[in-house]
Amino acid sequence: MIIHLMNKLLQGVAELPHLGVIRVEGEDAAKFLHGQLTQDFSLLGLTEARLAALCSAKGRMQASFIGFKRSHTEVLLICSRDLLAATLKRLSMFVLRAKAKLTDASADCVLLGLAGQAIEQSGGHAGLVWTKADFGTANLIYLYPADGIKRALWVAPVRELCPVGAPLSTELWLWSEVRSGIATVAAPIADAFVPQMLNYESVGGVNFKKGCYPGQEVVARSQFRGTLKRRAYLVHCAAPMKAADEVFDVADASQPCGTVAQAAKAPQGGFDAIVSMQTRVATGPGLRLGPDGPVVELQALPSPLLEDI
Prior knowledge:
Layout: H1 2-9, E1 12-15, E2 19-25, H2 29-34, E3 49-55, E4 61-71, E5 74-80, H3 81-93, E6 101-104, E7 109-115, H4 117-121, E8 132-135, E9 138-142, E10 151-157, E11 167-168, H5 170-180, H6 216-224, E12 230-237, E13 246-249, E14 258-265, E15 271-278, E16 287-289, E17 295-299
Parallel strand pairs: 1-11
Antiparallel strand pairs: 1-7, 2-5, 2-6, 3-4, 4-5, 7-10, 8-9, 9-10, 12-15, 12-17, 13-14, 13-16, 14-15, 16-17
């Protein structure tokens, strides 16, 4: 049923007002970001993109990004708009002597989500995930699919012509974000999870071979010492869900076993969500939204977790 709905509904071009753009300019732009984020930006090519996170010293994600180079001296970071100002301020504090300048470029850019046939109509193709194609001054970033439906992010200067395609509601695009299994860190969950709690290491969001960055020791220790006890799962609930809502094990209403990372209204009714929760309850008797709320149904992950790095 989900796949049928996706094929029918998830086709077109969506506006993305919930996202913003940070521009990093200068000959040290990539080098600077390499030392701050969870992914390798020093080897980032002009035909690639990166999923990455900014972590606290305790390894907790304070923001997440889709980053790519527009040129050898300019990197754009797409992030949740409600975290952009705080993130820009924090990153700017660490520039020091690096030849890099950070600015809010949201007003200079058009951000659109392309789904299904709209990608081909824009001139794109079936690109590999986290790769980039250029169309004049516009950039097309190929994202993880949602239940098999291809998705891409269109980033362009405001003067650039927008891609052709049927209008797609932002609400449906947000649903596709959830169905892709990759949560965007927004204000309600900032500083709540280490990257693996949202499965970022399995979808290209963490590089364990790069150098140091804030929180790197905690992130690495979680991975290699087997201390991680939370993972991200897809769920469905008949009642509304939102980021930071708590999920409980039906066998234990005394304390939550999980937290909603991102949720969206599902066109078939109810809400779908990405929930970071204790692995021990994934095979348990059941889940509820709140201590005695409606049933939360566990669903299959859209992509496998890495067993080894």
